[in-house]
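To: structure subgroup
Subject: Chain for Friday's discussion

All,

I'm putting the inputs and outputs inline so they're searchable in the archive.
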Amino acid sequence: MSNEDIYKNLTMLGGATVQPQSPEEAVLERVPNPQQGTPYAVRFTAPEFTSICPITGQPDFAHLVLDFIPDGWLVESKSLKLFLTSFRNHGAFHEDCTVAIGKRIVEAIDPLWLRIGGYWYPRGGIPIDVFYQTGEPPKGVWIPGQDVPTYRGRG
């Protein structure tokens, strides 16, 4: 399959795009996995993820680490970036944001395995870390640890 065939259905990459106003409005694009049949892990890290508290409207901040083992599809990174930034005006608790992101990516690309770690900065003095994964990872694939330390303040 040529690169031209792989990328023909992408609508966001290489041009100006409008920032989606909500996660529901955001589109996650996918491309065929040119290495299908070769098990490997992909990691996306979003160290400046933001959403808002659904009660107070105050901003919340997280460091997200997303690991997946693709099957037939890869998530296109610009569409993922736009999807993640669509949460900036979205009111939801940390748990809901983290798990919803993981589920939405699974829905879009149907990976062999996915895990997401949401390392949230303190709200009311308490940091909240949220973890979601789709099951046991396939054997024989190197998946590094997320190694994001628990929030320690100035410690």
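Points worth raising on Friday:
The chain is about 20% helix and 25% strand.
Residues 94-109 form the longest helix (16 residues).

D.
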